[in-house]
Write a structure and sequence with these properties.
Layout: E1 10-13, E2 16-19, E3 28-33, H1 50-67, E4 71-76, H2 80-93, E5 98-101, H3 105-118, E6 125-129, H4 136-145, E7 150-154, H5 163-174, E8 183-187, H6 196-210, E9 214-216, H7 218-223, H8 227-250, E10 255-260, H9 264-286, H10 296-300, H11 302-314
Parallel strand pairs: 3-4, 3-10, 4-5, 6-7, 7-8, 8-9, 9-10
Antiparallel strand pairs: 1-2
Helix pairs in contact: 1-9, 2-3, 5-6, 8-9
């Protein structure tokens, strides 16, 4: 259940490893900033609370260091000019990788030109090549001309919303040149909370066939369920959000767009806990725990691992 016969690809973004067999590397957590209703945002002209933004980024850095879970920020912008302001600020603030979240392909391309101009392609995750883009091949060629190395490919088929439909969507996009980047990770398109399961099954199917790292924006499933706060209150919503995203991180996910960066204090512990359980699930199948010092289980339960290994040796 938690190991694949197919070789699982591991990519590196700014020295962060993404992918591999389940449990081999911690999941890559990607936060959102400057999204609509973000409290640090003052307007859509690039004005925001810089001190608060810096505090949020530094807090995520600290959580990454303490849990071993790598992270970055995807910054939402409505225009290339707005995106440039966020990129410049971010690069002055942190060494973490980054992405730009823009729905319109033409605007994404323009913002990406600024990334290329700055020469920071190694730190940049392009998000994303989608099945809704009108000219995928043209977009791919443009990105390659700009020296872009790391891309997200979003897999979804409006006419076939099953896990197999996501696989076919991915294969179609890859066949148009999207497989030619240094890093290709697959977003299996979360549409709502219950349908998140289809994305997780798609993760398993895609990893089994291609070996590519898979994940999703699991916050789409939780934050779009507006009624949860009415049913359970804010604390109930927070619990639901943490559980859904942690559970998703166990089920064949190499990365997670986890939502607003202000939720980091609950998401990182939740995902770290889930990954600790994943490590022992994998151990039950393989009788090994990867020799990766960043794994949450190695950070917090090294004595337990020694006992497991000693017990197995005695057998």
């Amino acid at each position: 259940m938690f190991s694949f016969s197919k070789e699982q690809k591991i990519f590196s973004i700014n020295n962060i490893k993404i992918g591999g067999q389940p449990g081999e590397n911690p999941p890559f957590l990607i936060a959102s900033m400057f999204h609509n209703k973000d409290r640090i945002l003052e307007d859509r002209k690039g004005n925001f609370n810089r001190q608060k933004a810096k505090e949020l980024i530094k807090n995520q850095e600290e959580l990454s260091a303490s849990t071993g879970i790598p992270s970055m920020v995807a910054m939402v912008a409505n225009s290339p000019e707005e995106a440039e302001i966020y990129i410049d600020f971010y690069l002055e603030t942190t060494s973490m990788p980054f992405g730009i979240d823009m729905w319109v392909a033409e605007k994404r391309a323009k913002a990406t030109e600024h990334v290329a101009k700055l020469g920071v392609q190694d730190k940049f995750l392009y998000n994303s090549i989608t099945p809704w883009d009108k000219d995928i091949k043209g977009q791919v060629d443009k990105l390659k001309d700009l020296g872009i190395k790391h891309v997200v490919v979003q897999a979804f088929d409006d006419k076939d919303q099953t896990p197999q439909g996501r696989l076919r969507s991915l294969e179609s996009i890859l066949s148009q040149g999207a497989d030619g980047f240094d890093t290709v990770i697959v977003d299996t398109s979360v549409m709502n909370l219950p349908a998140t399961s289809f994305s997780l099954i798609a993760n398993r199917i895609i990893k089994k066939k291609t070996g590519l790292p898979c994940g999703g924006a699991y916050s789409n499933g939780t934050h779009m369920w507006k009624a949860a706060k009415d049913i359970w209150g804010l604390d109930g919503f927070k619990a639901m959000d943490a559980v859904a995203q942690a559970m998703s991180s166990v089920l064949w996910s190499d990365f997670n767009f986890y939502g607003p960066i202000v939720t980091a204090p609950r998401i990182f512990p939740a995902v770290a806990t889930a990954h600790i359980l994943l490590s022992t699930l994998v151990y039950d199948e393989t009788k090994t725990i990867p020799d990766n010092s960043d794994l949450p289980i190695r950070k917090y339960f090294s004595d337990f691992i020694e006992k497991l290994i000693a017990g197995e040796a005695r057998k």
